[in-house]
Structure formats: structure tokens, C-alpha cells
Design a protein that fits this description.
It contains four helices and 24 strands. It is mostly beta strands and 298 residues long. The radius of gyration is 22 Å and the shape is globular. The N and C termini lie far apart (61 Å). Bound molecules: zinc ion. The site of zinc ion (ZN) has 4 residues, from loops.
Length: 298
Amino acid sequence: MQYSILNSPRILASALFLFVFSLAPDRTCSQSNVVKLTPDVVEAGSPVLIHVEAGREATIDADWLGRKIQFFPARDGHSWFALAGVDVEAETGPSVLRVVVHSDSGSIDLSRTVEIHPAHYRTSSLSVPPKFVEPGPDELKQIEADVKVKAKVFGASAHEPLWSGNFRAPVTAQPTDSFGTRRMFNGKLASIHKGMDYRAAVGTPVRAGNRGVVVLARRLYYEGNCVIIDHGLGLWAISMHLSRIDVQEGQHVVTGGLLGLSGATGRVTGPHLHWAVRWQDAYLDPAKLLRLDLSGVR
Ligand SMILES: [Zn+2]
């Protein structure tokens, strides 16, 4: 009786082992356990909590998909966390999470391969007033001014995490699975929906999802009355289309603090709260952030 190579489980297992380890820059098996991701299955649009075992005296040099990752020390004194993520439009397939830990005893490369899985987002068509699809000269002027304001807001973030514990939903209203939906506006302009819509009636209290500082509280063309909270280390939460804003730029807010009332201002088809989560220039699925257990982190 003759076995072909593929019929031999042992050879197949060895081949698989070599294949996996030729993909991963890890030097040993144990190193991949030192960098832990939550969730361990990463999809396009996922926020990801990264845990690295390294002493308090260490410095960590890390980047992923072209974004630098900033770590903060864990309570235990011998590990570090970072709240990072993968943009909704990220290419799926293997990616390299580069992590190098520097300490007195030298540098250790803990880089690893992370598979980005596709998330199954929908496609939809909707109609909005024509001025939002073909803005006139006055509108274009405002849109241009808004772009500058937002670039400034997203150009700086607190140098430490301002959030504490789990994020909570910004409204008591029905969420929709609208994040990531490819949208056709009036059959023309295509865009990807980078937030989560809540079916909130006009006047529903909108609250801070976590601790942070208000870095924008004003009316913008598309966003309507908008509040942006900086949660630190490049993480922001954005609430749009409010009927009323109850906070001021520079104000510190606690989890659940009132930001304003939901409404139907800006480019909308009806009253709702659009809530977006941004890490650096990546848009993350708010529903996944709400499910992430951060209670023991800080
Ligand atoms: Zn929306």
C-alpha cells in the first residue's frame, strides 16, 4: 500500500506548520501569545484591543496597516494595551501587525500576521433633497470650511486615553445594522455609510459613550448639528444631525453625560442619530466597540 504525500496526516501537518510560520514573522511559537488581540477574529471595520506583555520600563514601537499604534500601561504593571482598529474599507487578507518592544535588555520583535476577514455589509439606495447631491456655490463654500474645521479636529488627540470602562450606546433607541452599507444617493453619488444609525425621534437625549473632551460642537453642512468627543490616543466618537447641542468645545464629559438632543439636521432622510467611531483616519463599527469588554482595561 502506498501513501501519497497528501494522504499522510503527519507530512500534511508539518507542511501546514511550515506554511503558517513562513507567513508569520514570529520567531517562536511563544511570541505570538505575547501579543493578544480582542476580538481574535478581525473583520474590516473592527475595533481591536491589543495587549502586549512588556515591563513598565519598556517602550513599544508598533504600526498596523500604515497607522502608528500608541500603547498605554495596564494596571498590572507588566503589560500594555492599545485600542486600535481596521478601517471599514480595509483590504481583506493577511496584514502585518508590527510590534517591537525596546527595553534595557535589547529589542524584541513580536510582529505577527493578522488575517482581515470580510464583514458582510449591505448595499442600499436612498433619496435626499437635491441640494445635498449637487450643492450650489454657497453650499460648496460651507463644505470647504467644514473640511478645514474637521481636519483640525482630527489632527490632534489627547496623549492618553480619556475613556474608562466600557462604551455605552449614545441613545435609548433602536440601533440599525447600517454601518458599512454602500449607499447610492438619488441613484448617483455612492458612499459608504461609516456610522451607525439609531431610530431616535427628534428630542431624544444623546449622551457621551464614554469619558472624553468635546472637540467640536457646531453646525456643519452634511453632519448638521454635530458633536465630536475626543476619547484620547486618536479615538473619537461623532454624533450627527442633532436638533440641539448642549455642550461647548473644550468641555470635559463623563460617560452618559448629555451632549444634546437628536434631530434631523444636515443631510438626512428623516430624524435619526448617526453615531460614528473613528480611530486615526479609520472608521470602526460602533456596534463592535459597544460589544468590546474594556471593563478591566482602565
Ligand atoms: Zn447615518
